[in-house]
UniProtKB/TrEMBL annotation:
TM region(s), chain numbering: none
One Pfam family per UniProt: DAO
UniProt keyword Flavoprotein present: yes
KW Disulfide bond (keyword) present: no
Highest taxon listed in the record's lineage: Eukaryota
Binding residues for FAD: T160
Gene: DAO1_2
Family: Belongs to the DAMOX/DASOX family.
Domain spans labelled FAD dependent oxidoreductase: 28-317
GO biological process: D-amino acid catabolic process
Protein species of origin: Extremus antarcticus
Cofactor list: FAD
UniProt-listed Gene3D superfamilies: D-Amino Acid Oxidase, subunit A, domain 2, NAD(P)-binding Rossmann-like Domain
Name the record gives this protein: D-amino acid oxidase
Annotated SUPFAM superfamilies: FAD-linked reductases, C-terminal domain, Nucleotide-binding domain
Amino acid sequence: MPGDYDIGYASPWAGADFSMGPITTKGKPLELETWPELERLARDKPEAGIHFQESIYYRRTKDLDNEKGRWFEGLLKEDNQFAKILPNYRILPESQLPADMDAAVSFTSVCINTALYLPWLASQCLKVGVIIRRGIVSHISEAAIFHHSGRPADAVVNCTGLSSLKLGGVEDRTLYPARGQIALVRNEPGVIVSSTGTDDGPDESTYVMDRAAGGGCVLGGCSLRDTWESQPDPNLAIRIMKRAIELCPSLVPPGKGIEGLSVIHHAVGLRPMRAGGVRIEKESIRSSDDEPITVVHNYGHGGAGYQSSYGAAKLAVTLVEEALQDQARS
Ligand SMILES: Cc1cc2nc3c(=O)[nH]c(=O)nc-3n(C[C@H](O)[C@H](O)[C@H](O)COP(=O)(O)OP(=O)(O)OC[C@H]3O[C@@H](n4cnc5c(N)ncnc54)[C@H](O)[C@@H]3O)c2cc1C
């Protein structure tokens, strides 16, 4: 639940920003539907804990010939999909590139203070009369009888993230974790910065995200496939902090290294990756007493669950409405 910090709940650990990466696809890219809503919240709803940030994404000269570097090439084309979505998208001139960087793009993004945003979302539900209950289900069909009315629900929406790997009735073996480790610091660079690679291996990355409303600044990171370890690795923590300062020197006072960081905590979150990408799909399953139950799945958002959230939710709502119409007809 919002307010909990648990390894089985990825959302609190995210930066979270709207950034470059392969855009989630399911028909229309989900990000296309999501950006306008995040932009509206950042503009009109300060209580949601989302603010606009200038975001700079660098390609290191060392990455020119690797997969990430080649992928970056697409960002330098004027008609690329991010340039169409994100305001103030531009290619930085060479004169503004730090040493060791070959190219960079800059754009307006948002950074979400997840510690404020997740409880705010729960409050939005309460405001419109949603009854929230806490519980663990071992089989997806149990969710239908968990409904507060005491009657089975007409439809179940399954948003259990990585847990759909083991959840009875779902057991989606294409899910796997990508472990992300972060340091949350009090320093406020007032910008989002990231780069294509690191000297510490392809599983590690460097990003700096300054959250809204005193939420601290998130330094990352890594993406370790099939790694379930919930405790931060202290050596990785040092590498993350050093790299963040190299990439974004304004994080710390001049002349300072990691001793210039004021650390709130080091933490780990598991991204709910799925081999085939996100699953937003309707399915009819059978309860233990052989009753049909409509389930709409919405899980497997990997490292892009915030930036695809409203697009994904819209699709899931459409599927629920279709299911209810089918039920009304039969
Ligand atoms: C370090 C890190 C950085 C990230 N940065 C970004 C970013 O900058 N931008 C971005 O867009 N995304 C980012 N992500 C990805 C994003 O956080 C996830 O895609 C997203 O949070 C997934 O949300 P979810 O609701 O699907 O899953 P979760 O947040 O994991 O929620 C699953 C929920 O299901 C519940 N649940 C599970 N099993 C059961 C059960 N059996 N019974 C009852 N309840 C159950 C859990 O308790 C939990 O509440 C990042 C992730 C990490 C780890």
